[in-house]
Recover the amino acids of this structure.
């Protein structure tokens, strides 16, 4: 029975998903953390923003973007150094398995877990906090391409960022502060236009801000676009910036990824 590249990638993806689900810490932090944050913030900040938009409606969009970033960027930037420390990558490089299969497995895992988390957040927001789902095909299409571009950029950046950690044990200390700072400055926990202008400008460099903005165009009424710093949702710029980060992330992966630890050479 011949083995196709597609079957190899899917098989490796299945293994990655099983390993992910066996790690309670990964499951709780990746899947449960965004839900817990929705419960906390929706219970505390239950007011209306301008235009009759409830803060919960605004906040859930940011948590969906955060969930995609957590699955794509944070989880990989922590998992890969741990696997590198344990010698998993070194052993894989010495097998006949093509190197791309390892990355294909990670992509499959990120896609499946990212989809599951998005559905979970939509279900919680809709059932318990009055989240209004998109009512037009156009908005669902925007939701699709923003999510795909966003999680692709985060995945590639996560693989590239994994080379910065000196050890698997130190990876969370390197990655988690970066993720938290991006969340606080990108309009996840607070209305983005209310943040200091310098903070908005810094956040605009990175993908999460644009993911949040693109998702606001999906879940918030068109009239709310006037509340954005530029006076519109700028979907064209959202697509451009996220695509640019996909390219940047890929180039960084190709030039910085390491199969062995620094002590192994």
């Amino acid at each position: 029975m011949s083995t196709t590249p597609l079957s190899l990638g899917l098989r490796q993806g299945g293994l990655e998903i099983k390993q992910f689900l066996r790690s309670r810490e990964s499951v709780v932090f990746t899947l449960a953390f965004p839900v817990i944050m929705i419960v906390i913030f929706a219970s505390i900040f239950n007011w209306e923003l301008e235009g009759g938009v409830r803060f919960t409606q605004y906040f859930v969009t940011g948590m969906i973007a955060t969930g995609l970033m957590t699955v794509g960027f944070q989880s990989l930037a922590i998992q890969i150094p741990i696997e590198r420390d344990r010698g998993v990558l070194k052993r894989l490089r010495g097998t006949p398995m093509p190197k791309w299969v390892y990355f294909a497995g990670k992509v499959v895992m990120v896609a499946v877990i990212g989809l599951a988390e998005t559905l979970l957040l939509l279900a919680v927001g809709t059932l318990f906090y009055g989240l209004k789902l998109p009512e037009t095909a156009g908005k669902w299409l925007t939701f699709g391409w923003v999510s795909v571009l966003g999680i692709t950029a985060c995945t590639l950046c996560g693989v590239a960022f994994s080379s910065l950690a000196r050890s698997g044990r130190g990876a969370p200390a390197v990655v988690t502060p970066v993720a938290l700072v991006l969340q606080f400055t990108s309009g996840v926990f607070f209305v983005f236009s209310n943040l200091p202008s310098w903070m908005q400008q810094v956040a605009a460099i990175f993908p999460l801000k644009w993911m949040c903005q693109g998702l606001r165009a999906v879940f918030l009424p068109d009239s709310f676009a006037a509340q954005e710093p530029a006076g519109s949702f700028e979907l064209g710029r959202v697509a451009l910036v996220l695509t640019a980060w996909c390219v940047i992330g890929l180039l960084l992966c190709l030039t910085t990824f390491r199969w062995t630890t620094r002590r192994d050479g």
The chain has one domain: 5-264. The mean pLDDT is 90. The longest helix spans residues 55-85. The chain is about 70% helix and 0% strand.
